[in-house]
Amino acid sequence: MKRISLFFLVTGFLIWGCKQQHKPVAIDAYNYQIVKHDTFQQAAVSSAHPLASEVGRYILEQGGTAMDAAIAVQYALAVVYPNAGNIGGGGFMVVHTKEGESYTIDFREKAPGSAHRDMYLDSLGNADLTKSQDGHLASGVPGSVAGMELAHQKFGTMEFAKLIQPAIDLAEKGFAITEREAKGLNRYRKDFIKYNTQTPAFVKEQGWKANDTLIQTDLANTLKRIQKDGAKGFYEGETARLIVEEMKRGGGIITEQDLKNYIAQERIPIVFDYKGYEIITMGLPSSGGLVIQQMMEMIKPYPLKEYGFQSKEAVNLMVEIERRAYADRTEYMGDPDFVDVPVAKLLDTTYIRSRMNDFVPLKPSKSEHIKAGLGKEKEETTHFSIIDQYGNMVSLTTTINGNYGSRVVVGGAGFLLNNEMDDFSAKPGVPNKFGLLGTEANSIAPGKRMLSAMSPTIVKKDGKPYAVIGTPGGSTIITSVFQTLLNILEFDMPAYDAVNKPKFHHQWMPDLIHVEKSFDPELRKELEAIGYVVKERANIGRTEVLLIRNGVIEAVGDNRGDDSVAGL
User: Fold this and answer.
1) How many angstroms separate the CA atoms of 268 and 314, rounded?
2) Residue partners of 549: CB distance under 8 A and separation at least 6
3) Region for 495 from its dihedrals, namely left if φ exceeds 0, alpha if ψ lies in -120 to 50, beta otherwise
4) Strand partners, 468
5) CB atoms closer than 10 angstroms to residue 62
6) CB within 8 A of 365, min separation 6: which ones?
7) With contact defined as beta carbons under 8 Å apart, do 219 and 415 qualify?
8) Which residue, among 78, 343, 105, has the nearest Cα to 222 in the 3D structure?
9) Is beta strand 457-461 parallel, antiparallel or unpaired with respect to 37-40?
10) pLDDT reading at 3 higher than 70
11) Does residue 381 have an active-site annotation?
12) Does 376 score more than 90 pLDDT?
């Protein structure tokens, strides 16, 4: 088994290790390695950053559960992966316990109390998407801290102060950034200056380079307040005051009352069967679970394995399924606390199968002719997957929406705020930054959660843990999880191939197939020859997969980023 060299001992780890009567484990924040693929016998973590994965491994080694490790990894990512890891955003957590119970936690952001349906329209009634994507007004009320507190209250076995300590140490003592992180910070330097009222730690006069040390003192102090007072240390008191002052300086609308009123909540998980596999995923306000179930049910009658991986026939079928499911997503889905979403009808097997009645093999449909069947995201999200030695599994996807969110860092608090308000429909029929359309179901309202595509997913086989899957990628999240599931369940791929084989994406509108650069050029020509419009784009997602076969956990961190695995 590959292991990362460990010797940089931070105080929090030393005290923790001694109290638990375990040999202290050191995390080298300056000479760590990125491990893309490994196998483990007991437990594993796959996340977007090697230091976060190492934090998760350390928690597991101390006897913590997958849920304990998830909390620690979430906070660590807020430090070491600032372009998507966060305490200023939100997300979804899917948990399956060793007792066989499934749970989901919704800590999606909410619209502030003074938000309103037409807040991003100009005087002529046109949508001004710069306001929903850039700067203070783009931010919804953050949910991540409340989500982690609810997770700890329900599942935590270790003291919360110990779970957040690694993140505090990494923020306070600093860590060496990767080349990819250096490029990202330099690329967004102008935005950090433009949208901030105080210069954040992310701005360096001479520019960043690989192995530079990033120290985030303000963030460390914010994390210490959370460590001391729990969620109240974020939604009330000093941190809340700093957030509200930042809003006032920059023209945002989040208030002290908005923060104090935020609540994370449990939701009923989406659970369904696919050819003997039990798939557990997230329900609304994530559209991911509903759409994945629809697509898996649509594809079930077809001999996909006989068609072959990324054959013309297989891609044609999958694209037409994606087209129809995304049409339903656009028309019907929104926050179930505000909108009466016809979930039972959307998931009715007869209805789902009927969506393919007009499918003709190797003949593209036209999205303008495909309507919702009942009658009606830049991509800086991050995901991590954890399996522990006890049989618990966690799949958690979290986001601040765009790369570095709104690019607004809360002055004196050191963390980035999201730009999730763009995930609402600013105006029916106007696409957001991911090209996703929306209707009244996803219009803005005070306290409402914006519709999401995040799709954290867990799979069981014969009643036992089998796989944990998830990815970032805005509107491409759902199709990436869909393809990864089929790569494993239909094409019997090893986890490494299931993650790293080329991805493609169709979302109803715009009516084209997005493909990665590594997509087979001959297949692209075949698809274009039968009438599809195919467009090359940057990488699709960064999928984190843990797959158990023959009693061994195969852990994979996507080659598309600095993703890394660790385990026992």
Assistant:
1) 32
2) none
3) alpha
4) 458, 546
5) 18
6) 320, 323, 358, 359
7) yes
8) 78
9) unpaired
10) no
11) yes
12) no
- Among 239, 381, 397, 479, the one annotated catalytic: 381
The secondary structure element, H or E, covering residue 514 is: strand 513-516
CB 431 within 8 A of CB 407: no
DSSP state of 243: H
Say whether pLDDT at 351 is over 70.
yes
Burial of 517 (0-12, 13-18, 19+ CB in 10 A): exposed
Tokens 């958690």: give the residue.
Answer: 396
Closest CA to 439 of 274, 324, 326, 315: 326
Residue 127: per-residue pLDDT: 83
What phi and psi values does residue 489 have, to the nearest 5 degrees? -80, -30
472, amino acid identity: P
Looking only at the bridges linking them, the beta strands covering 513-516 and 534-537 are parallel
CB-neighbour burial class of residue 363 (10 A; exposed 0-12, middle 13-18, buried 19+): exposed
pLDDT digits (tens, 9 = 90+) for 185-197: 999 999 999 999 9
Listed residue (347, 362, 233) closest to 307, CA to CA: 362
pLDDT tens per residue, range 99-151: 999 999 999 999 999 999 899 998 888 888 889 899 999 999 999 999 999 99
315, two tokens: 């891609």
Residue 164 CB: number of other CB atoms within 10 A? Answer: 25
Residue 399 pLDDT class (50, 70, 90 cuts): very high
- Other CB atoms closer than 10 Å to residue 334's CB: what's the count? 25
Give the angle subtended at the CA of 56 by the CAs of 417 and 384, to the nearest 5°.
55
Angle between helices 312-332 and 477-489 (to 10 degrees): 140
Q: Point out which residues pair with 46 in neighbouring strands.
A: 385, 565
Strands 102-107 and 270-274: unpaired
Q: Which two tokens stand for residue 567?
A: 């385990």
Q: Alpha-carbon distance 562 to 52, whole Å?
A: 11
Whole-number Å distance between alpha carbons of 183 and 59: 31
What pLDDT is stored for residue 402 in this prediction? 87
566/77 Cα distance (integer angstroms): 15
Query: Rounded distance, CA 374 to CA 365, Å?
Result: 18
